[in-house]
């Protein structure tokens, strides 16, 4: 794997690549306030390897990156972001430009799934396929179903959030991140794995407190609808998602022509946990097997 700083308008983005650049590219787009570490390196390597030994799917060139204000990417003072939601949404295309990748398979989780949808609608020629995880439609269908809201426990994380940690206390920040992940994960929450990733997040981040700037930026409406999505689409959704209950995944799959919905048992609103990699990795390799 290779880590690099990529110059895009208004920021330096930290990106890391796995595999052979000659293979089809998969760009992983993280959720709100999420640095690249939440896409586990072992998960990225499994995609790069093309699955378990003996599989015939071929490898992938996998790219993960730190959003602005996360990890080692450009970081503004907490509470004072210098960018807009448009910048977060345009950064995948800018990153592909900087890496010399004309067309990629996009995979996004939560906010990253929204960004992937917007990219597929507004920059169709750059997107070979979509994998959308733990997310919801970015455009409203007035004739579509009314989608359920978050569970009371998930809503409480926004309406009565826990206090910020002492940002100078590394272990307190790590525990705060673990608690935040636990609040949205499914019943099989992997405390040890999450703890290890949270420690990595804090160790790599220029300023962990700056990630909350994502909640302060405003975004414009998407220019188009999900009917404009042209490439193959896979929707992966946890059946225990407390933020976007499974109906959101079903609505998303119904709105995109030819999309396929795969429900992940026991998974909440989270990056794919190790327990379902044996499902998620083959599904992502299959959807990204085309040109």
Would you kindly provide a written description of the structure presented here, covering whatever features stand out?
By secondary structure, the protein is an alpha/beta fold. It has one domain (2-148, 206-287): Rossmann fold (3-Layer(aba) Sandwich). It contains eight helices and eight strands; from the N terminus they run βββαβαβαβαααβαβα. Strands 1-2-4-3-5-6-7-8 form an eight-stranded mixed sheet, sandwiched between helices. A hairpin with a 2-residue loop joins strand 1 (2-8) and strand 2 (11-18). Helix 5 (170-184) crosses helix 6 (191-204).
Topology:
Blueprint: E1 2-8, E2 11-18, E3 25-29, H1 41-49, E4 61-65, H2 85-99, E5 104-109, H3 111-122, E6 127-133, H4 152-159, H5 170-184, H6 191-204, E7 233-238, H7 246-255, E8 260-264, H8 277-287
Parallel strand pairs: 3-4, 3-5, 5-6, 6-7, 7-8
Antiparallel strand pairs: 1-2, 2-4
Number of E-type strands:
8
| CATH architecture classification | 3-Layer(aba) Sandwich
User: Outline, from the CA principal axes?
Assistant: globular
Estimate what percentage of residues fall within beta strands.
Answer: 15-25%
CATH superfamily: Alpha/Beta hydrolase fold, catalytic domain
Distance between the termini: 23 Å
- Backbone CA Rg: 18 Å
Approximate helicity band: 25-40%
Strand order of the largest sheet: 1-2-4-3-5-6-7-8
How confident is the prediction overall: mean pLDDT? 95
Provide the number of structural domains: 1
Pfam families: Abhydrolase_1 (PF00561)
Protein name: Pimeloyl-ACP methyl ester carboxylesterase
Domain AB hydrolase-1: 24-269
Organism: Promicromonospora sukumoe
């Amino acid at each position: 794997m290779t880590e690099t700083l990529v110059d895009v308008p208004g920021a330096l983005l930290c990106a890391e690549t796995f595999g052979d650049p000659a293979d089809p590219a998969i760009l992983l787009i993280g959720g709100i306030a999420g640095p690249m570490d939440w896409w586990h390196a072992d998960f990225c390597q499994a995609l790069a390897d093309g699955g378990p030994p003996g599989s015939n799917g071929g490898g992938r060139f996998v790219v993960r990156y730190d959003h602005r204000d996360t990890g080692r990417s450009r970081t503004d003072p907490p509470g004072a972001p210098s960018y807009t939601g448009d910048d977060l949404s345009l950064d995948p295309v800018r990153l592909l430009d900087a890496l010399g990748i004309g067309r990629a398979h996009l995979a996004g989780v939560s906010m990253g799934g929204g960004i992937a949808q917007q990219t597929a609608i507004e920059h169709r020629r750059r997107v070979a396929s979509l994998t959308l995880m733990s997310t919801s439609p970015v455009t409203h269908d007035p004739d579509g179903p009314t989608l359920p809201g978050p569970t009371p426990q998930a809503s409480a994380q926004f309406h009565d959030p826990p206090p910020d940690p002492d940002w100078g206390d590394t272990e307190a920040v790590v525990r705060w991140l673990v608690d935040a992940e636990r609040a949205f994960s499914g019943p099989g929450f992997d405390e040890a794995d999450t703890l290890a990733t949270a420690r990595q997040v804090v160790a790599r981040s220029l300023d962990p407190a700056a990630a909350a700037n994502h909640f302060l930026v405003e975004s414009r409406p998407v220019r188009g609808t999900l009917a404009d999505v042209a490439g193959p689409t896979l929707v992966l959704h946890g059946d225990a998602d407390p933020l976007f209950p499974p109906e959101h995944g079903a609505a998303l799959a119904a709105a995109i022509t030819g999309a396929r919905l795969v429900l992940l048992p026991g998974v909440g609103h989270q990056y794919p946990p190790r327990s379902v990699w044996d499902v998620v990795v083959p599904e992502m390799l299959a959807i990204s097997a085309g040109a």
